[in-house]
Amino acid sequence: MIQPIVIGNWKMNGNLLANETLLEALLSSLEKLEDVQVAVCPPLPYLAQVAQHLKDNPVALGAQTLNEHEAGAHTGEVSAAMLKDLGCQYVLVGHSERRSLYGESDIAVTAKFAAAQAAGLAPVLCVGETLAERNCGDTEAVVARQLQAVVDTLGIEALSGGVIAYEPVWAIGTGETATPDQAQAVHAFIREWLARHSAPLAARLPLLYGGSVKADNAAALFAQPDIDGGLIGGASLSPNSFANICRAAEHR
Ligand code: PEP
Q: Closest ligand 1 atom, CA of 95?
């Protein structure tokens, strides 16, 4: 049995006051939540603030990106060791916004994945197809290519200790969610793909769905056998919605 995980990706939103208000409401709404790992990924400048709020709390801290280099002349960048130092447990790698807006290739994503893992962070590898790719029937090929890039370079066991998030690009921030059947079909494909490399790993690796998950569609998505939780963007900025999504994962 895989413990459900729900991760909130705040993207480039928030400020000191808003973060404090959001966290206070969220942490009180999440009291008594059981058997769900919850994490929030604030923008990098607020990691220390959020870490302070999460002290002695089971909600984990994550970051939205990292640089693959250890240290040195990389102006504006943040290393895996720095994230670890600030108390992060998770880091997103290969989010579609990073891939499409900042040109992160499969090779770059693999390097970031490796750096995160070497520093003891759990990389959340985001994969997913665009609408055009889905309409061409290429969903599985795209997802397999994104997974293969990491496995070819780092080996299948590198995924151990990580998380995979299937996020169809056409569903991210659009209000259009994959139906539970559509999401389950791709999750089942990912599980089978992993099992072809390592059945034990496939059985224990958490597979999250992301793409316009809301309080009113989360339960149906999380009820699917291969969906082990969610990566939540917009709805993670509302404490009530995010807490309700976390509760939907509790009863999966
Ligand atoms: C995301 O940012 O990973 C995401 C899934 O966003 P949203 O929930 O807003 O679609």
A: 3
Once rounded to an integer, what is the mean pLDDT over residues 37-45? 98
Stretch 220-232: mean pLDDT: 98
Class of the 40-66+75-250 domain?
alpha beta
The response to whether residue 96 sits with its C-beta less than 6 Å from ligand 1 reads: no
Q: Atom 8 in ligand 1: which residue has the minimum CA distance? A: 233
Domain boundaries, the chain: 40-66+75-250
41 by Cβ neighbours in 10 Å (0-12 / 13-18 / 19+) ranks as: buried
Q: Each residue of 227-252: pLDDT tens digit?
A: 999 999 999 999 999 999 999 999 77
pTM for this predicted structure: 0.97
- Would you list the DSSP string of 115-130? HHHHTT-EEEEEE---
What residues does 123 pair with on adjacent strands?
91
